[in-house]
């Protein structure tokens, strides 16, 4: 006897029945003529089946282990069932048929089409994205706005059923409601069955002979609708607001997806946002910088409707001797924090001072400045030139102008 059945299946002689069964399934799927281009596949497949027939039968296995010929000691060569007891695998049926679709499903994942059943006409709708352009004040303090959205909604005529008035879907006459059809072909292995999606109903298991005239059986129609969007205080460009169930309705009147509103904040002529702080530049004359003064500042709240004068303006004190690029801070006049422990707490308003030097002087003004220079010892050769520029000064000045 030249055939070593243990070697054919790749198992040791002390292999358990379960190990023999697993090895056989693996080898059968590897050498099956319908899934390999090997010209010797047929012979290899027969050898694998013969090996399993012997080693899975205790009597034949005992004959083989004693050195006898089990194929001539009760039972000729035949094909055993490699997939017996595997549930979702079709295997060789009692009628001698073999389901290729189930074998391929076992090899590459998933079950056959028949095991899935008819698919539903109702599906979840897609999410949608809109972009909303806001002013800095709207983004900083929040707002409620209206948006027009082109989207799918439930068909008002059929309420999502997809059928005309007074009609219903009917069971498919080809697949009888299963959503799949099976074709049988003869081969040397017996009847080979392949299961595919029913071409008549596209796998739904039913057809709609009288579709809704408005949605053509889809259960949804495209239209424009208006939605209200509440924007929380403190949003910035790139933030997205999620509105659950406000996206498009799915086919068959399925549940709607979500709507995402992406915020785009326009630049402001006066204020620049830095996190939760607002920054602005204030130009004052050199006399005010030298002597000090109080300057009224119009805040960002002034752009909101119904803002009181107290909220719209703040008095900023300029200390005497203020230098150019000095940053003064007004507490609590920035942007509310959007999230975190400080949610709702407002940042600060930073005011960078630019000192303006006069370019045109009257004779009287020039005389007064000359007198001041003499009194301060800053005239003629007494004018000092500082070396080693203040890097902090230039950094502040750059930030103030570049925004």
TrEMBL record:
PANTHER family: CHAPERONE PROTEIN DNAJ, DNAJ HOMOLOG 1, MITOCHONDRIAL-RELATED. This is Chaperone protein DnaJ. The gene is dnaJ. PROSITE patterns: DNAJ_1 (PS00636), DNAJ_2 (PS50076), ZF_CR (PS51188). Residues 142-224 form the CR-type domain. Binds 2 Zn(2+) ions per monomer. CXXCXGXG motif repeats lie at residues 155-162, 172-179, 198-205, 212-219. SMART domains: DnaJ. Keywords: Chaperone, Cytoplasm, DNA replication, Metal-binding, Repeat, Stress response, Zinc, Zinc-finger. Belongs to the DnaJ family. A zinc finger (CR-type) spans 142-224. Homodimer.
């Amino acid at each position: 006897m030249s055939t070593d059945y243990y070697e054919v299946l790749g198992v040791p002689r002390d292999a358990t029945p379960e190990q023999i069964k697993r090895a056989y399934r693996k080898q059968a799927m590897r050498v099956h003529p319908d899934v390999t281009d090997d010209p010797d596949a047929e012979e290899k497949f027969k050898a694998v089946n013969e090996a399993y027939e012997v080693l899975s039968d205790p009597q034949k296995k005992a004959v083989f282990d004693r050195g006898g010929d089990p194929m001539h000691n009760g039972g000729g060569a035949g094909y055993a069932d490699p997939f017996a007891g595997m549930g979702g695998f079709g295997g060789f049926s009692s009628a001698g048929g073999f389901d290729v679709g189930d074998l391929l499903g076992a090899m590459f994942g998933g079950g056959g089409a028949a095991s899935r059943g008819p698919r539903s006409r109702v599906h979840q709708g897609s999410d949608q994205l809109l972009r909303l352009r806001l002013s800095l004040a709207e983004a900083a303090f929040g707002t409620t706005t209206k948006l027009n959205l082109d989207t799918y909604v439930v068909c008002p005529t059929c309420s999502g059923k997809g059928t005309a008035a007074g009609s219903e879907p009917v069971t498919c006459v080809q697949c009888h409601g299963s959503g799949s059809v099976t074709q049988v072909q003869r081969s040397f292995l017996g009847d080979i069955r392949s299961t595919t999606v029913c071409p008549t109903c596209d796998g739904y298991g039913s057809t709609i002979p009288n579709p809704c005239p408005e949605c053509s059986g889809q259960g949804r129609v495209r239209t424009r609708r208006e939605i209200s969007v509440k924007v929380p205080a403190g949003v910035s460009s790139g933030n997205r607001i999620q509105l659950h169930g406000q996206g498009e309705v799915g086919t068959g009147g399925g549940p709607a997806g979500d709507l995402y509103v992406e915020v785009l904040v326009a630049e402001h002529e006066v204020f620049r946002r830095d996190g939760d702080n607002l920054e602005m530049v204030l130009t004052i004359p050199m006399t005010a910088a030298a002597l000090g003064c109080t300057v009224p500042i119009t805040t960002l709240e002034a752009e909101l409707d119904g803002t009181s004068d107290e909220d719209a303006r703040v008095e900023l004190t300029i200390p005497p001797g203020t230098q150019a690029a000095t940053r003064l801070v007004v507490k609590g006049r920035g942007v509310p924090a959007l999230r975190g422990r400080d949610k709702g707490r407002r940042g600060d308003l930073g005011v960078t001072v630019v000192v303006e030097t006069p370019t045109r002087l009257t004779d009287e003004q020039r005389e007064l400045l000359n007198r001041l220079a003499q009194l301060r010892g800053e005239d003629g050769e007494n004018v000092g030139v500082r070396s080693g520029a203040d890097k902090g000064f230039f950094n502040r000045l750059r930030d103030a102008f570049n925004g």
